[in-house]
Amino acid sequence: MSSLLHFFDVLIGTFDLFIKALVLTLEISILAFVIGLAFGLFFAFLKVTKIKPLVMIVDFYVWIVRGTPLVVQIFILFYGLTSLILIPNFLAVTLALAFHLGAYLTEIIRGAIESIDKGQMEAGKSLGMGHWLTMRRIILPQAFRRAIPSFGNQFIIGLKDSSLASFIGMQELFGVAKLEGSVHFDFMTYLLVVGVYYLLIVYIFTKLVNRIEWRLAVSD
Amino acid sequence: MDNKKEIIKVVKLNKSFGNLHVLKDIDMTVKESEVVVLIGASGSGKSTLLRCMNFLEIKDEGDIIFDGNKIDPKTHNLNKVRERVGMVFQHFNLFPHKTVLENVIEAPVKVKKIQKSQAVEEAMELLNKVGLVDKRDEYPSKLSGGQKQRVAIARSLAMKPDVMLFDEPTSALDPELVGEVLITMKQLASEGMTMVVVTHEMGFAREVGDELIYMHDGKIVERGNPKDIFSNPKMDRTREFLSKVL
Ligand SMILES: Nc1ncnc2c1ncn2[C@@H]1O[C@H](COP(=O)(O)OP(=O)(O)OP(=O)(O)O)[C@@H](O)[C@H]1O
Ligand SMILES: [Mg+2]
After folding, report:
1. Could you tell me the pTM of the whole model?
2. How many A/B residue pairs have CB atoms within 8 Å?
3. A61, A150, B175, B183 — which has fewest CB within 10 A?
4. Residue nearest to atom 2 of ligand 1 (CA)
5. B118-125 contacts, C-beta under 8 A, 24 or more apart
6. B20-47, pLDDT tens digit by residue?
7. Burial class (CB in 10 A: 0-12, 13-18, 19+), A119
């Protein structure tokens, strides 16, 4: 009983601290996701050209990302980037996570593009729209809609994975939990508290994605 | 001979998919305001021939001459050619994320860069023509097959093409919806639209066609006035085919 009270004590007492950390977590994950989308779009485009060398580049990228732990990627990219150019930790970590998410988003976007009936491209071409205009105006809008559930999933994975940023000193949710836990010799309580934040934020985003999905389904 | 302009001329066209020789030395001419009807068994190459005419398939050998210009897919801007060659597909291929009106104005606005207000005005005229003005704000999923195909025709017409290609435009429709699409096509023909139509609707071929082409196994077996061919086919193959479909 007293430990439960203690938990709520800490939960309330650290509210400001964790909200600040939550904002950082969201900044990292949202920015990483957006940049990851750009990566994904770019590499998916390369892949759907079916041009051998381009496809090989994409497959290599995806192979690297899938075949190594994210922590390793973050460390390599973080130290690699920061030793090459002077950029803030925040940006280096975000780019590393974006690089990682980008590989998964590449596959999601490629799959979505290829799932669109090829009659759509033919219709666009037959109207004189050409490959790229049809891609932009006709194929991609449909592909993105179809990919929204997978995007949502991937975003949530990225959100949780952003906790790895703590390993290079970022004071996002998990970083703050680790620090405060060790300062107060009370690791477990702070881990439980941060767990609540993750649960809550993931729950909110899941609902949000479902909502968007539902609205698109209605308008179809 | 009449001196109508030749819109599309196909000379010794050959096309293979891998080892499959699908079109063999096809020669044909489509003149202004003419309706050419292509018939033949499944797999005889009708769609491929049609698709070569707007370069959705690229020929292996032979020439495609459009409005007097030999089109070389390597050097010509095919988009420019396709602007002038409309195509209507068996499965409509409407853009499902766009409303009926948006489907029709998409290419005029984005390709021809026509003012949106003007494109809408022209689109409404076309929708009026195909009898779908009241559906302008519907999404394709809310339309019947016949309505979808009529929207697809309007969408193609919006580019003001010199010729329209139809690939089995009524084959995917429930029987009771075939008529409304054929009526629209007949109306187009009567307005002088140049058309190449792949179809199994022999009534349409007989009534509207200026020339009938019967294809078998990648070759043109017989061609001529539809009424003549239907009543008195010269080739045994044609007779055999017609006895099955008439
Ligand atoms: N993209 C392609 N790749 C390989 N083979 C193809 C391709 N398109 C068509 N074919 C083959 O070429 C032949 C002619 O096909 P085509 O679609 O032109 O026939 P069709 O006369 O239109 O038949 P249908 O009445 O069934 O539509 C068929 O054997 C078909 O399987
Ligand atoms: Mg066909």
Report:
1. 0.89
2. 65
3. B175
4. B17
5. B119/B158, B122/B158, B123/B154, B123/B158
6. 999 999 999 999 999 999 999 999 999 9
7. middle
